[in-house]
């Protein structure tokens, strides 16, 4: 069917109809008819052609919210993080299954570099959006590179606020990730408070103090931070020294100490209203990685490169991993971070021998 030809025909018919039945002048009639037909065309185009090839918010082909895929990804690739696994999966599933959530889902991931915070954020994006992190509804902010000057806090707040308003107007199911929160200036995140509050209708105003009617509660906010790492490690060491097992630890063993650490340490969460007003739903600890977890990371990286590693290959990669002597050499200082490039180099060297 030729849609444009049909729209022209509809416009002409509407002009004729209104000329015969109304007292408006021909110019007004013509403009109104074209506008009406154009609106019908735009709507038809939106629900047919556009959403087949272009990402649309209210379309399950693009916003898939596949929690089984998230669960599978965590089972296969997230190591040593049983608390994050159970907490995040339950929080995400509960949120998306509620057609009218009371507030936006807000989670804060805390732990050492390389423990899986960014990795899990990527898993969430890939299970939520068909285009994953490339979705136009997935918004990533880097505290280290985007918010570098303490003198520009008001400017940063206005920028974040505008981005969130525009994004929520475009799609209420947006996901916002704030990485390296500990590198952000103190006070910047206070701008998020109106978007995270309980209730159907929030008092959101744009830069011109105009009230904006937007849906805030279907969005998801994720904060990634190294704050609280020392508290997590010290708590885990005490549990180990008392004969406990890390696999038996619970969210309640860490959540309060993470909250206090984040609120008092220098960075974006220091004295933050997002914490003091209890708007963060889950403080998720990412436990430091032990040798057995690092080896599983290594095996996965080799498998991804279609290479079956020998024990010597794995040991070579392990030689680059540094363990913290202050933790009885139990925990790797940087987890699985930086190992991918080491493994890529080893695979290249081994394969190059056979060329």
From TrEMBL:
PANTHER family: LD13476P-RELATED, TORSIN. GO terms for molecular function: ATP binding; ATP hydrolysis activity. Keywords: Signal. Residues 290-343 form the Torsin-1A C-terminal domain. GO terms for cellular component: cytoplasm; endomembrane system. InterPro entries: P-loop_NTPase, TOR1A_C, Torsin. It comes from the Eukaryota. Residues 1-23 form the signal peptide. Belongs to the ClpA/ClpB family. Torsin subfamily. Pfam families: TOR1A_C, Torsin. One of its GO terms (biological process) is cellular response to misfolded protein. This is Torsin-1A C-terminal domain-containing protein.
